[in-house]
Amino acid sequence: MKVTALIRKDLQDFTHYASARRQAKQGTVWLNANELPWDVSQAQLNRYPTGQPEQAKQCLANYYDISPQHLLITRGSDEGIDLIIRLSCQAYQDRVLILQPTFSMYAFYATLQAATVDTYQLSPDDGFTVDVDRVVQNIQPNTKVIVLCSPNNPTGHCIPLITIKALAKRCTDQCIVLVDEAYIEFCETDSAVTLIEQCPNIIVLRTLSKAFGLAGLRCGVVLAQPALIDWLSKLLAPYPLSSLIEPHIVQALQPKRLTAMQQQVNQIKHAREQLASQLTTLSMIQTVYPSFANFLLVRWRQAGNIYDACQQHGVILRDVSSFPGLTDCLRISIGTEMENQTLLQVLIDYGRWQDE
Ligand SMILES: Cc1ncc(COP(=O)(O)O)c(C=O)c1O
Fold first, then answer.
1. Is the CB of 207 under 6 A from ligand 1?
2. Pick from 234, 173, 232: nearest CA to 203
3. Architecture of domain 3-244 in this structure
4. In this structure, which residue's CA is closest to atom 12 in ligand 1?
5. CATH classification for the domain delimited by 256-355, as one of 3.90.1150.10, 3.40.50.300, 3.40.50.880, 3.40.630.30
6. How far apart are CA 245 and CA 218, in angstroms?
7. How far does residue 205's CA lie from ligand 1's centre (Å)?
8. How far is ligand 1, taken at its centre, from the CA of residue 246, in Å?
9. Are 99 and 148 a contacting pair, CB within 8 Å?
10. Domain limits of the chain?
11. What is the pLDDT of residues 243-285, one digit of tens each?
């Protein structure tokens, strides 16, 4: 496969902005970037940062079990979605195919890029199963990106690797298959990173915002074949990452912290199952969907009233009832034991009040 087949035609000759940092080779007297010479912060914040901090990159590469050349650090995986769509979709010509219901940012960035958004509707009745043949039927000649979110937000279901691979193989020279694995640490399946060598059109997104508990850091990671990573890096802003990010990434990936992360993930998974079984006993609930992430999708008898009742007691849920196929659904992030119990108590009290 030629990687240029996946790149927007009007970008084929695009070269990245040669920032002062990128251009500089070596030296000790820095007079090239219009910075102030004094380090008032005492943390070298008077200097522009390097685009991709090397040590952080190496630590991430070790964690994802791939080389640093296969990896790009971005401002959250949100930025990764934006870059991939901008790289591959020509405005007013190309299309992005998404599997609804799913995370809203895919359609958001596609619309910003003036790409048409096509949707393939998943059904809760068959556990949101993805049928490869039916997805392929929805690929148009100018479809450039197919988005698979696994585990999917907000349904919590996983897409088997065999399905991802089959789909990627069926559109090798035409589409990027973007696999968003923001929540994969909460689920037992292997990552689609293992498919990148066999399927050069797969791009995987990971993040430190979820299992690592570092949403405020804004560290997303794009993983793909080096040729695609090189292309994506051309689209990056000159200094995309704060200089303050690197030590936090390096620390988060030390063996001790990885063990702690795994323990917290196990704790969340246990709490998820416990909360799911407690919720199913409540009469106001229609369905608690199985989840492989750190949240539960729940269908209620009257979602609007439940949302308001929770809000009145300071418990904030995510209203996803306007997502296609998710009427009366709310999404619950798994909190601490106390937070989950607070939610349950609000629901129990609400149920009692309804019965009176
Ligand atoms: C599926 C999915 N992908 C990506 C993101 C964005 O994550 P980040 O914080 O890395 O930008 C989210 C955030 O909720 C998400 O649910």
1. yes
2. 232
3. 3-Layer(aba) Sandwich (3.40)
4. 182
5. 3.90.1150.10
6. 8
7. 9
8. 20
9. yes
10. 3-244, 256-355
11. 999 999 999 999 999 999 999 999 999 999 999 999 999 999 9
